[in-house]
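ARCHIVE CARD
CATEGORY: sequence design from structure
SOURCE FIELD: tokenized fold
FIELD CONTENT:
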């Protein structure tokens, strides 16, 4: 019977007349010169659909996505109030007080996370969850959940100008605001003198603080140099980082960190710090925004423009600014990189620079990639020395 019904339906569809309006419908037949928005049968329509390329973001727009300063107001959760009830059942009318204590409020905790590279995701206000009220039958209220705020590794936490925490290792935590204690239920006030207490206490408010978060970039090596010395071009040449570069003079506005990979799976983090100018220790130009990120670098790479006259004067000014900012900062392990060796003036200034300085000088061209191998080998030597020194002192070296 079912087969006969399906056969009859097929004969009806076969001999059913087709209306002319359906054949000329604009949905099925597009107008001349106009294509359908999509197609499920024709392959040439799907080939014309290409993915959009990502727009190149300028250096000025990149600053919106990077922040190394944040002012945060944190408030701990309020504790739950105590319960107020009396136990009663059919054969035990006067069972006494059974109101439980309220739950504690949740803390606000700052946690260093290696995957977080900027303070731009940190909101200006955080509050912990409140504790619940105490229940009947001496049931305690639930504690409020903790609120974790992820911050980059190397974040300083300051309050009223004083440093209260330094989150320099991955996974370190700091309780920014404690939650309030829960209130006491009327069961807590039971005594021989008071067999039916009606007293219960509310929960305490959470701790409230205003903190200033300050990021100091944590990297193994820091590129130190004046604006337009070629630091960003060098970082692009030795790593996959893409700081903005151009054929006209400008300076980097925020630090960039590139990772140099080696065959034995070791990774060295190199930071491109914003360009330094004279009297930067007096907060001129980018000032402290530059010097703050240099402070945590384990060794320094001084990038000098060989095409200018007397390039050793640049090196003296760089070391002077570092020493004025922090005593002993210029004495860290370092190497001098003479950039732009492909220019004619650089060939003349290179031997003069080597006569004036006692440190090792590596001449290269970040634009053409000349002599990058020597830099990468010496960079690995500095890293191995740093690792051995940390292990001999019983400390764990920073890994990326």
């Amino acid at each position: 019977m079912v087969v006969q019904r399906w056969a009859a339906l097929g004969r009806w569809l076969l001999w059913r007349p087709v209306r002319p309006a359906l054949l000329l419908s604009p949905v099925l037949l597009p107008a001349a010169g106009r294509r359908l928005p999509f197609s499920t049968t024709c392959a040439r329509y799907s080939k014309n659909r290409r993915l959009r390329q990502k727009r190149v973001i300028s250096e000025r727009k990149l600053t919106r996505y990077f922040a190394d300063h944040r002012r945060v107001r944190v408030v701990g959760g309020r504790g739950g109030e105590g319960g107020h009830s009396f136990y009663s059942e059919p054969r035990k009318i006067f069972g006494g007080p059974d109101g439980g204590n309220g739950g504690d409020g949740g803390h606000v905790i700052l946690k260093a996370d290696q995957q977080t590279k900027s303070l731009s995701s940190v909101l200006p206000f955080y509050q912990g969850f409140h504790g619940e009220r105490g229940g009947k039958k001496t049931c305690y209220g639930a504690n409020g959940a903790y609120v974790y705020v992820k911050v980059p590794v190397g974040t300083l936490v300051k309050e009223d100008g004083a440093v209260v925490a330094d989150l320099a290792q991955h996974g370190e935590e700091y309780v920014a605001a404690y939650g309030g204690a829960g209130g006491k239920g009327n069961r807590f006030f039971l005594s021989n003198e008071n067999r039916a207490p009606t007293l219960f206490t509310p929960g305490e408010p959470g701790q409230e603080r205003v903190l200033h978060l300050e990021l100091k970039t944590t990297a193994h090596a820091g590129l130190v140099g004046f604006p337009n010395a070629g630091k960003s071009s060098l970082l692009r040449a030795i790593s996959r980082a893409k700081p903005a570069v151009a054929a006209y003079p400008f300076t980097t506005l925020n630090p960039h960190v590139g990772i140099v990979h080696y065959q034995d799976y070791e990774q060295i983090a190199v930071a491109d710090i914003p360009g330094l100018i004279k009297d930067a220790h007096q907060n001129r130009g980018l000032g402290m925004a530059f010097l703050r990120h240099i402070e945590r670098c384990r060794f320094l790479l001084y990038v000098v423009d060989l095409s200018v006259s007397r390039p050793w004067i640049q090196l003296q000014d760089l070391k002077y600014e570092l020493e004025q900012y922090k005593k002993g900062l210029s004495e860290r392990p370092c190497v001098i990189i003479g950039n732009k060796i492909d220019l004619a003036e650089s060939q003349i200034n290179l031997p003069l620079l080597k006569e004036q300085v006692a440190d090792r000088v590596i001449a290269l061209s970040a634009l053409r990639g000349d002599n990058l191998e020597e830099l990468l080998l010496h960079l690995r030597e500095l890293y191995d020395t740093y690792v051995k020194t940390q292990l001999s002192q019983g400390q764990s070296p920073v890994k990326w």
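CARD ANNOTATION: The chain is about 20% helix and 20% strand. Confidence is low (pLDDT under 50) at residues 18-64.
SHELF: design records, drawer C
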